[in-house]
Write a structure and sequence with these properties.
This protein is an all-alpha fold. It contains 10 helices and 4 strands; from the N terminus they run E-E-H-H-H-H-H-H-E-H-H-H-E-H. It has a two-stranded antiparallel sheet. Helix 1 runs parallel beside helix 9 (about 235-250), helix 2 runs antiparallel to helix 3 and helix 3 packs antiparallel against helix 5 (about 115-140). The protein is elongated and about 70 Å long.
Length: about 290
């Protein structure tokens, strides 16, 4: 029976990681990542590559947890699972930001977005990878026992910044949703793409990532002796399960639905008055000249 071991006199783990749980989640994330890779290649949606990489990171993280079952005193499995389970939501978020931009462009709704689609992608994706850099730096400090506290503080700062960015992103989505729906109700515009279901997917996946990040912030604030790091079940409930649901939801409502044969023909935004004006101009052109 595996027991807790020390690394240079320090306990890295507060419990023996569950081998069945780690193997199960490694397999589930492996299947989900394979499905996403296949979908990305067949639909040529290369901007979803960060999502696939995030799935690979999740799989590596849970494989490392499985390896730690009999090696709780080994540093490598502990560091690998800590880093590779910390970073995937940042990569998932990058694809979610780009999906929003594509939804707005697909329905020609640039005027209804708080931030232009192009700037939305640049601002949020660059901010996202800035958070990734911060969390990576903090994760690197977890290697040495005497810098663990500093590493935790840096990671909390990166997660806090990511939470603020996610809150801003969700507000941007909600604002566009309200304004564009009001425009449709007012003008009777029609759309042949599932823009609302795509936005609903962004809401649900973003909320899952947000809850996970809040959990991680609380976990690191409570410290190495806190309840969340002393018990294994929160990791699977508030991190593993939520991130798996994000991958499943993204796969079901894949953004390839935003690309029918002609992107410019997806939505008619013309009002009745504009249609009448076009009709008037057509009639005028058709009149014979004297």
């Amino acid at each position: 029976m595996p027991t807790l071991e020390t690394y240079h006199g320090i306990y890295l783990w507060r419990y023996v990681p569950s081998l069945p749980a780690a193997i199960t989640f490694a397999i589930l994330f492996g299947l989900a990542t394979t499905a996403h890779g296949w979908k990305m290649v067949t639909t040529r949606m290369w901007f979803c590559l960060p999502f696939v990489i995030g799935g690979i990171f999740e799989e590596i993280g849970y494989i490392a947890r499985a390896a730690a079952f009999n090696s709780t005193g080994a540093l490598s499995p502990y560091i690998l699972q800590a880093i590779f389970l910390l970073l995937p939501p940042v990569l998932f978020a990058a694809s979610l930001y780009m999906v929003y931009s594509r939804v707005v462009r697909a329905v020609q709704g640039e005027n209804f977005s708080l931030i232009s689609p192009r700037r939305t992608t640049v601002i949020f994706v660059l901010g996202d990878f800035f958070c990734l850099s911060i969390q990576s730096d903090g994760g690197g400090l977890l290697i040495k026992p005497n810098t663990v506290h500093v590493g935790d503080c840096i990671i909390v700062a990166g997660l806090g910044l990511q939470i603020l960015m996610f809150a801003g992103f969700m507000m941007c989505c909600l604002s566009f949703n309200i304004r564009f729906r009001a425009h449709i109700a007012k003008t009777g515009a029609t759309s042949d793409i599932p823009w609302q279901s795509c936005l609903n997917m962004l809401y649900s996946t973003s909320l899952a990532v947000l809850v996970r990040n809040i959990y991680r912030v609380i976990e690191f604030i409570m410290g190495q002796d806190g309840y969340l790091l002393s018990n294994e079940w929160p990791t699977y409930v508030f991190d593993g399960a939520l991130m798996l649901l994000v991958m499943i939801g993204f796969f079901i409502w894949y953004p390839s639905q935003l690309h029918p044969s002609s992107r410019d023909s997806m939505v008619e935004l013309a009002t009745d008055g504009a249609s009448s004006a076009e009709h008037g101009r057509a009639m005028k052109l058709s009149e014979p000249t004297l």
